Amino acid sequence: MLTGKHVAVIGGDARQLEVIRKLIELDAKISLIGFDQLDEGFVGASKVQLEDVDFTTVDVIVLPVSGTSNEGEVETIFSNEKIVLKAEHLKDTPNKCNVFSGISNQYLKKIVQESDRKLVELFERDDVAIYNSVPTMEGTLMMVIQNTDITIHRSNVVVLGFGRVGMSVARAFHALGADVKVAALESELLARIYEMGFEPIELSNLSNEVQETDVCINTIPARVLTANIISKMPTRALIVDLASKPGGTDFRYAEKRGIKALLAPGLPGIVAPKTAGKIIANVLSKLLLEEQNNIEEEQS
Amino acid sequence: MLTGKHVAVIGGDARQLEVIRKLIELDAKISLIGFDQLDEGFVGASKVQLEDVDFTTVDVIVLPVSGTSNEGEVETIFSNEKIVLKAEHLKDTPNKCNVFSGISNQYLKKIVQESDRKLVELFERDDVAIYNSVPTMEGTLMMVIQNTDITIHRSNVVVLGFGRVGMSVARAFHALGADVKVAALESELLARIYEMGFEPIELSNLSNEVQETDVCINTIPARVLTANIISKMPTRALIVDLASKPGGTDFRYAEKRGIKALLAPGLPGIVAPKTAGKIIANVLSKLLLEEQNNIEEEQS
Amino acid sequence: MLTGKHVAVIGGDARQLEVIRKLIELDAKISLIGFDQLDEGFVGASKVQLEDVDFTTVDVIVLPVSGTSNEGEVETIFSNEKIVLKAEHLKDTPNKCNVFSGISNQYLKKIVQESDRKLVELFERDDVAIYNSVPTMEGTLMMVIQNTDITIHRSNVVVLGFGRVGMSVARAFHALGADVKVAALESELLARIYEMGFEPIELSNLSNEVQETDVCINTIPARVLTANIISKMPTRALIVDLASKPGGTDFRYAEKRGIKALLAPGLPGIVAPKTAGKIIANVLSKLLLEEQNNIEEEQS
Amino acid sequence: MLTGKHVAVIGGDARQLEVIRKLIELDAKISLIGFDQLDEGFVGASKVQLEDVDFTTVDVIVLPVSGTSNEGEVETIFSNEKIVLKAEHLKDTPNKCNVFSGISNQYLKKIVQESDRKLVELFERDDVAIYNSVPTMEGTLMMVIQNTDITIHRSNVVVLGFGRVGMSVARAFHALGADVKVAALESELLARIYEMGFEPIELSNLSNEVQETDVCINTIPARVLTANIISKMPTRALIVDLASKPGGTDFRYAEKRGIKALLAPGLPGIVAPKTAGKIIANVLSKLLLEEQNNIEEEQS
Ligand SMILES: NC(=O)c1ccc[n+]([C@@H]2O[C@H](COP(=O)([O-])OP(=O)(O)OC[C@H]3O[C@@H](n4cnc5c(N)ncnc54)[C@H](OP(=O)(O)O)[C@@H]3O)[C@@H](O)[C@H]2O)c1
Ligand SMILES: NC(=O)c1ccc[n+]([C@@H]2O[C@H](COP(=O)([O-])OP(=O)(O)OC[C@H]3O[C@@H](n4cnc5c(N)ncnc54)[C@H](OP(=O)(O)O)[C@@H]3O)[C@@H](O)[C@H]2O)c1
Ligand SMILES: NC(=O)c1ccc[n+]([C@@H]2O[C@H](COP(=O)([O-])OP(=O)(O)OC[C@H]3O[C@@H](n4cnc5c(N)ncnc54)[C@H](OP(=O)(O)O)[C@@H]3O)[C@@H](O)[C@H]2O)c1
Ligand SMILES: NC(=O)c1ccc[n+]([C@@H]2O[C@H](COP(=O)([O-])OP(=O)(O)OC[C@H]3O[C@@H](n4cnc5c(N)ncnc54)[C@H](OP(=O)(O)O)[C@@H]3O)[C@@H](O)[C@H]2O)c1
User: Alanine dehydrogenase/pyridine nucleotide transhydrogenase NAD(H)-binding domain: from which residue to which, for each copy (chains A, B, C, D) (predicted)?
Assistant: First the structure.
């Protein structure tokens, strides 16, 4: 339990509600900043203005997935007020206060460093990335069903990359009856691809393997779907690019060739905000509980 | 091959293009009625007006999935002209001329009977229903992903009915990691449900099994989702009703209880018109080829 | 509950112990005939000699899977005494007494008819056949792993027949990564084979589809693996014939061609006697409970 | 192609035949040492005695999976002669000559080092371990089917470890319908376990999760199945220990408790020697071809 812990939850979207729910379950004391328009009442959580928070009592700061903007602004869909997080706020906190966000940027890193606090970027964690690969995969399924005139079943699917997202995506399309090829570099990934029933492609050989592609799903954050590769695909092919912006596709060339190519960022928050929120809530609370246990052990 | 066979394709939507393509492949002589606005040219198929067709030379008539309206009108998305099929047309055809449609109605049955021809309702066939269960299943996945805020993975799914559609739907949700229960009447269906890794529910016991339902998919064309059953579901549940109109759900009660319930007819033509067209094309051509073989065998 | 019901369990093997266990659970009164060497004590079941049974009090007779021999002898592995069931025994029972066995023969049918009782052959039931298809499938896996020098994963498997056993077998080999073809006659079976991700073969076309076969599993109780078909297989192929004796394989020809062919009857009792026993116990008790409910309803 | 390359294959079992076959396919010049009793003739491979080999012409030395004994002896099932590999042999070879084995030991490492050659232990490679996880998994299935009286389907299976073998094993049991729990330490493994549809167990919490275990499969090469854990299992449980000798099980305690526990080393060579041989052949030849390409590129 987190009894006695004071957590400041600043901004966010539907996902943050799951975080709040979990923290309440664990009996934390919660201040909600940027939630004034939230209808739902949370017993045990009080809505406050940023300027009214006594940061000297705050043990944990929880930012939204996006962290802050480069000007320090914290996004929230539950308030119209502008919320800017500053180094001063952090400096006021007790030494052990940690800051949690999904991703971060220069600004956030700077203010955390300046105030000598610790920043935990949850989306950098392998476990979070794997849990998130599930809603990402389902969003991909949805997009493919919507944007093709054929079934996934018995279609020719090529997945690029076999990391945390690629494995989940390949497994799902295969489970629905597609013929799945997966392109990767390392020999042990190619071995696992083979073991899982997909056809392994050496990435260097990709251009010879896309002639019959109905759907190509990219998870590699590098320019892998070059004009050369795209020129080998049939025009009926659909490209769904999951890699973080700007994706790995030569979108200009795809359009020229008449191939539909879609960049699809942020799927978990779009197709399954509740599950995406629970993922964050679970990992965050696990980390907080572990930290607490460590402190208790040290003290005893 | 269907060399020498004269097929009149009357009306339809994108699915019919696959039928035409297949018939051309098989070297049939094709008259297209109601396709004047079709851009795509088909070598070997000529666009004609209904009144210009010489039905005495027509060996096969292919209607759209919907057959005719109760006034004899044949739907087409490739023409603005009104096309009405009459008994006279059929009477002109050679004795052996068969009429193919997806489904039929009183009008169509009557004119076929009057003219002493044979009507083949393709959608009544088990094989067609099973092939169509695949795009139906994918459309269902899409709707569920769109209309819930959680992932299918690890959700509680209840499928009602384990016929041609129910089996495909249950398999897909299970393959994506859902906990799947399936409700059916017969003991052999319950046994297969168990073998396939789903939890069998006796339909009579349904009301005790829906307390934790996230998604309920109905394939039984009878009022099974009564107010009583729906009242036992959590309000977060989503109902997707696939059964032919009016579905098996008490939609009025679902709305009252605040449960989202969607009637989702005609999914194959919506989410995968090309695959849906190929299904028709394959079965139709197989039937035509078999008939031809039979005639040749009789003659030899 | 079966309180007050008197069940005579006559003979059997390990499977019958599960039946006894279940009946005790349901509070039946049980007489065990042919179990004198059984170490395990069952509270609520008494071991008796056939001649000491008062059949006028017996409500249900449970025979082993095999029923009786053609001389009326009932097999048991728990006794050395010879047990012969006769029409006289049955005639003594109350009118409503039913006889349960797995399969039956002329003798058993005759004595049941003579005494005007009802015989239930559990193995004729679709649900029992489907439940049993699971241990049958696992036994088949075991035999294939033992009798080949390659993995099932990525091997070429042909399954003949897509009934209760064929579907379970095809699903399992596919799940383990084999390329699975399934041969059947009916168009709706071919459609389901396709939907499930296997390659459908029309049985009439089998001879053209076995050139690359590593493993062929027959479930069709008819001579389908003829010399002609076997001659098209590579000599490395393994045939496992599950169909009831004498199987569907030309074993003489297979041997001549140097192809290993195994007839594998009775797998459930061999590889999973406990599960096989539970299958019988569950269905038997469900039938007894239903019967009881019906009687109670009639009486009320 | 390996045209012109001279490969000395020294000793081995059935797996080595696949290696020889592959090398011949690639047009290598092959000397077979320790194969005098091999019936099968390989065109392009000549059987020689160790003392007759001109090692100054040997480009590659291929040892069996086991490498050598600690006295330098090389196992072979195709000869009765004793073959001892010595540093002298290696010293005679050209500088670039590499030595391939499955595993190695002090002796082999020493003579390779003394002669300044390179040793490649194929079984240390991730890709080889993953490919081998497939026959290992199938051998495990076979053992479990043989050694239990229930079906894998719907049984409670606990897999310890989620590395190269653990993942393949868990996937297979799940695919056959078992309820699979997997125990691991790292949070990202636990996340993948969850994504794949298994129930994740923190290894530290194992003792609370084995009460209902029917089958426990260990892949962790450390003493994880302690008396404490085993004491929590039901006596019906079966333990299959795949970890390299001495396994991770307290076998003495398991026996005392009446729990069957089997140490099962070397499954790939036992249940699928041909596939196991092809795995070695494929990786070996890929490495030789890559090396050759590198040399050619350097030279050009
Ligand atoms: N659209 C969405 O909603 C969504 C959701 C989640 C994640 N994402 C994005 O999807 C991408 C993949 O995420 P992930 O978690 O799967 O990452 P990951 O685990 O790091 O996997 C990336 C894969 O790409 C390969 N790769 C990386 N750089 C490469 C290069 N230059 N050349 C060839 N291969 C390369 C990696 O191979 P190695 O292992 O050999 O490096 C790995 O197979 C990221 O950009 C992530 O931001 C998008
Ligand atoms: N939405 C779409 O896009 C779409 C696409 C295809 C089909 N459909 C519709 O979906 C429905 C199912 O199609 P299908 O091909 O799966 O049909 P099906 O094979 O006949 O299956 C229907 C299932 O419902 C059961 N059932 C029928 N009447 C029942 C009753 N009164 N009480 C209890 N159970 C009953 C059947 O059990 P028994 O076998 O015991 O009768 C069977 O399990 C139909 O209405 C069809 O028109 C919709
Ligand atoms: N070895 C064992 O341990 C074991 C265990 C269980 C069962 N069995 C045996 O396995 C066999 C199959 O059992 P099952 O329960 O799967 O039976 P089933 O459900 O009747 O299936 C038999 C299959 O064979 C087809 N078939 C039957 N006769 C045919 C013929 N003359 N030509 C072409 N196809 C034909 C059926 O097609 P249609 O549906 O079109 O007729 C069906 O696909 C039986 O002989 C049974 O006794 C053995
Ligand atoms: N019986 C056979 O026929 C056969 C065939 C192949 C392999 N094997 C043997 O099977 C074993 C597993 O092989 P593998 O290729 O799967 O190895 P692996 O990929 O290294 O996997 C081992 C697993 O055990 C975990 N682990 C290792 N040491 C641990 C410890 N002290 N405490 C807790 N967890 C620990 C690892 O977790 P981390 O990743 O966190 O370290 C990993 O999950 C090896 O002993 C191998 O020799 C046997």
Answer: 141-291
